[in-house]
Amino acid sequence: MKHRSWAEPWRIKMVEPLRMTTRAEREVAIRAAGYNTFLLRSDDVYIDLLTDSGTSAMSDRQWAGMMLGDEAYAGSRNFYRLEAAVQQHYGFPHVIPTHQGRGAEHILSRLLIADGHVVPGNMYFTTTRAHQELAGGAFRDVIIDEAHDPTSEHPFKGDVDLAKLDAIVRDVGAEWIPYVSVAATVNMAGGQPISLANLRALRAYTQSRGIRVILDATRAVENAWFIQQREPGHRSESIAEILFAMCDCADGATMSGKKDSLVNIGGWLGLRDDSLAERARNLVVLFEGLHTYGGLAGRDMEAMAIGIEESVQEDYIRARIGQVHYLGNALIDAGIPIVLPIGGHAVFLDAAAFLPHLDREALPAQALTCELFLESGIRAMERGTVSAGRDPATGKNRTPPLELVRLTIPRRVYTQAHMDVVTESVQAVWEFRDSIRGLRFVSEPEYLRFFQARFEPLPVVSARVAAEEETAGAAV
Ligand code: F0G
C-alpha cells in the first residue's frame, strides 16, 4: 500500500498569538534571567519547549468540563468522576488527588520512607529523588547500562537491571527497601520506555521478597504506546489495555496529570492497600487539602478525568508521539547528535557530543540552552550536570553520564511548521558550535538548583581550549 501521512486528530478552534523578538532583546532577556531559561519571562519566548508539564492544550470537552466544577469543600462530584477514571484506566482502588505530581511524591515518601532506607529506581527524577531524600532515604540507580549511553538504540532503555537490584537487596536487606521506584517513561534517560516483560519480571522478583513497587505513572500512556509498537505480542492490544497491565505490576503510583492527562494542573496518588491509603488520606489533609480535592478546584478534577479518557485514544497518542519523532528524525537527518532512540515527550540533544570542547564543569547543556534561545527565541531545558545537583552526603557535584538539552513538546500545542523552525534553529547553532562558551554558577539554591540557579558566561571558551591557545601562543 502507498504510504499515507498521518495528521493531528483535531483542528484548531482558538489561537494564542506568539511574540517574536530581536536578537538584541533576547540578549537583554537571557542576561536578566541569569542564563537560566527557567528565569525567562514567557513573553520573551517564541517557541516554548521548556517542558511538556502543564502546557497542554485542553480539548473543547475539557473546557466544557471546567464549567461543571462542583466547588464544594467536601465530596465534590468531580472528585468521584476523577476517582472513577483513575480506577478504570490505572486500576488503583484508592485515589488521592494532589495539586501536582510532587504533592503525591511528598505524601508517598513521608508515608513509606524512614531514615536509612534505600530506594532503588530506574534512573532518578529530580523532584522524586528530592522527596525521597527529604524523608531520609537514599536513591540508588538500577536502570540498565544502555540508558546511560545516548547512542545505544536499545528499544526499552527504561528497563530495570534485575541483577543490579538484586545486588542492592543482598547488600542492604529487603527490610531497608520501602519500595522500588519505577518510572514509565524515564524522563532523564530521554523519555525512554520500560517493557511490560521487564515490569512483570520486576513484579515477580519484588513480590517474592516482600518489596513494594511504586510506579511513576506521569507518562505511562506514552510508555504504553512504545510497548504496543515495539514489544513482541502487544500490537493488537489497545493503549488502555496495556496501561492497565502496566499498573497491575505496581502497588501504587504517583501521577503528574500535567503530562499524559492533558491538564494544566493536577495529580494523584494511587494505592491498593487499604490501611496505607487511610494514612495517606490523613497526610494529604495536612499538606494539600481535604482528600476529595487535594489542592485542586472541582473544575480541575473534571478536566483531568476527561483528559485521562482522551489520553488513551489511539489516534491521539499516535499523533502525539508522531510529532516528537518528526522533530527527532529531522534533527537526525541534519546530523545533530540526539539521544537514541527518540523518546516519547521530547527530543534530547546530546550536549556533550554537540560541544565536545567544553568540560562538564563548563556546563555545556546549560550553555547550549542559552545559545538556542539567543539564536531563535526557542526555550529548552538543561538535563545534565546542573539538574543532577549535589550529593547530600558529600556536598559534591554529581556527574551524570548524560549531559542533555531537552526540547520538550507540549501536547496539542505546536504544529509541524513550528517543528521545522526548531530544526532550522538547532542547525544554525550547530554551525557555530565551536565558538560557544561555557557557563559558571553565580548563585545556587539548596534544593532542585536547576530551577533557580543563576549563571554567567566563562571568560574563555573552556579551560582546555584556553590551555591549548596558550601552548600554541608559546610555540609561535
Ligand atoms: N515524575 C516525572 C517523571 C516528571 O517528569 C515530573 C515532572 C514529576 C514526576 C513531578 O510532577 O511537576 O507535577 O510536580 N516533570 C516536569 C518536567 C517538571 O518538566 O519534566 P509535577
Count of DSSP H/I helices? 17
Find the CATH topology of the largest domain: Aspartate Aminotransferase, domain 2
Instruction: Give me the CATH superfamily of the largest domain.
Output: Type I PLP-dependent aspartate aminotransferase-like (Major domain)
List the ions, cofactors and other small molecules found in this model.
ligand F0G
Using the coordinates above, name the CATH class of the largest domain. Answer: Alpha Beta
Helix content: 40-55%
Number of domain modules: 2
Summarize the main sheet. Answer: 5 strands, mixed
Radius of gyration: 22 Å
The secondary structure category is alpha/beta
* Mean pLDDT reading: 96
Which CATH architecture of the largest domain?
Answer: 3-Layer(aba) Sandwich
Question: How much of the sequence is in beta strands?
Answer: 5-15%
Shape: globular
* Spatial separation of the terminal alpha carbons: 65 Å
Q: Main sheet: which strands, in order across?
A: 2-8-7-6-5
Low-pLDDT segments = none
The tally of strands reads 14
